[in-house]
Amino acid sequence: MNINEKYTLADMVMNHALKNGAEQVSVSINDSRSSNIEVRDQKIDKLTESIRNSLTIKLFVDKKYSAHSTNRMKEKELFHFVEEGIAATRFLAEDEFRSLPDPELYYKGGSADLNVMDPKLDSLEAKTKIDLANQVMNEAFQKDSRIISVSSYYSDNISNRVLVTSNGFKGDSNSSNISLYADVSVNGGKGRPSDYWYENAIFFDKLKRTDIGKKALERALQKIGPKKIKSGKYPVVIENRTVSSILNPLYSALFGSSIYKKQSFLIGKENKPVASQKLTVIDDPFIPSGFGSQLFDSEGLAAVKRPIIEEGILRNYYIDNYYGRKLKMKPTSGDTSNVIFTTGERDLAGMIQEIKKGILITGFNGGNCNGSTGDFSYGIEGFFIENGKIVHPVNEMNISGNMNHFWLNLVETGNDVLENDSIKTPSMMFDNIDFSGI
Predict the structure, then answer these.
(1) Topology of domain 3-221, per CATH?
(2) CA distances from 308 to 262, 280, 284, 330, 425 (A)
(3) Residue 325 phi/psi, 5° resolution?
(4) Cβ contacts of residue 361 below 8 Å, gap of 6+?
(5) Residue 207's CB: how many other CB atoms inside 10 A?
């Protein structure tokens, strides 16, 4: 279906729902095309190509709500699907907070194209994709006698969406993504260390295609011979690609659903310090060709650039329409876009040189964080630092603490921003972090 056909179909379904008793309706039509290739030890282990089409309708009937999806796109079947959905909704409990957003909050159109779609990607030949996966594989395969296995991956995705609501929203969006990934495991004597590397892009022509397998192998080999260190408090540097793992609990606590369910340690913290002054985070949906760029969110709310944390002070939560009503808070958006961090002056190597005795964290494995209290404990992978130099790998160690205190110990953000992601994290340095042996 082309864009006009999708709008016609969405309007038809919406009007049929209104005629059959729905008070408000939202209809989205989504289609996507994706490819996934996995090569393991120079043999194609997996090759899939898929085309998906779906229609999702959200029904608001007698103060009751339900959502239904189907991939059947014929008119007669859709009408029956809608009628059954309305009938089923009437059996549900009332929820006075369920309603479409205020139309004043909707995106009204007229903005410039954010350029997040590569039109050439759809015509890329399968052989080209397989060759890229093999190229990544060959950068590592049999390059060292200690290698146990090498896997490489190619994936791409093209998505298109149309959204219409019965109270006036109409909008469409599209996006593309392509990635190459390598995973290498090696014989470490007493263990089997492994590591990975990847590159992402929106446009095929801008995808970095070299050194992916090579970097994955180098990182795996660096982990051979790990040692425990003495438990205690240490300064810590967390690598840019790993920061998002420790950032996730903080970000999860910012969402309206977590706040309402009392599963957020940031309840009541708006306009109060939640981190050191070194942390400033902006949600910016308008970056041209940004991985998270959007003109409107999943509900149709107009995208807005806003500070989330400003010099350590919490400025905004992520509040969707439903939880905004329940919490009596103005909706901002229930979606993240491009998450941008204020950066410092040094890169990862520069921050490591500053540390007399500490830890570089390059990965987390296992552990959890209590969303209500902020208490956390995670297993770490990384390296012991002494006098500004990496001495040896570290394993069987935990990092623990409380998120309410952990982010207050941030002392520096790097200038090495992770560009190929919507969450553009730099490396970060923290002080006085608790480490203990497992």
Answers:
(1) PmbA/TldD fold (3.30.2290)
(2) 20, 8, 10, 15, 14
(3) -65, -40
(4) 236, 237, 238, 239, 242, 380, 381, 382, 399
(5) 18
Q: Are 321 and 99 in contact (CB under 8 A)?
A: yes
Residue ranges of alpha helices (H) inside 278-380 are 321-327, 348-353
Q: What does the block give as tokens for 334? A: 């229930």
pLDDT in tens, 372-417: 999 999 999 999 999 999 999 998 899 999 999 999 999 999 999 9
- Amino acid symbol at 186: V
Q: How far is CA 128 from CA 117, 136, 138, 198, in A?
A: 19, 13, 15, 18
Structure tokens at 432: 């006085």
Pair 217, 184: CB distance under 8 Å: yes
pLDDT digits (tens, 9 = 90+) for 141-191: 999 999 999 999 999 999 999 999 999 999 999 999 999 999 999 998 778
Do residues 210 and 196 lie in contact, with contact meaning Cβ atoms separated by under 8 Å? no
What are the residue ranges of CATH 3.30.2290.10 in the chain? 3-221
